[in-house]
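Subject: Sanity check before I submit

Could someone independently write out the structure tokens for this chain? I want to compare against mine line by line before I put it in a report. The sequence has 216 residues.
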Amino acid sequence: MAGRGNEGSEAISIVLADDHAVVRGALKALLDGQPDFLVVEEAADIASARAAVLESRPRVLILDVNMPDGLAVDAVAGLREEAPKTEIVLLTMERDLSLARRAIEAGALAYLFKDAAHLELIEAVRHASEGREYLPTAVAAGLKNDDQAERAVLSPRETEVLRLMALGHTNRETAEQLSLSVRTVETHRAHVQQKLGLDSRPELTRYALANGLLDA
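---
Independent answer below. Compare away.
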């Protein structure tokens, strides 16, 4: 049965899963120190965490990424499907942001480094309990930079279309120089604008100039 938080409000029920007993004990002490938190069960591997979640149906599952029986990131989607009302907060020592991306895409609401301030974990649990995402600044910035870098990768043909556009050529002139149809050039231009997040010719020209595309 769920406990009560401040002024009779429902406490945030939590399952805490970490394979290191000392770490788990320290985290439990931190969580138990919050008047609106209630750790209902603990687990030392993914299988036990899953069983605890299905039995107690907590509001939040705090799960270590590296567990003896696998990588927790790979279990997030299944856990979310089996217990859709339980939100997942992942903890890790790994700085690999590809794991963070996989976790968020699978349905986790928070991804925290274990050496982060304890206040971040408390904040993440409260956010998750309300169905809100919580990412530390370093994680959020890293994912944003990765997204921008991925979008900004232009194909050789897109780069050439951008260069000619920046030099002032019309779509028809660009099409003639590259032996393409005007429609194809328009498509390439649309892809360039989408990837770079730029809409106008002056913006595209400044980008081309800044990246040395007009030096050739």
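---
OP: Matches mine. For the report I'm noting this point. The chain is about 50% helix and 15% strand.
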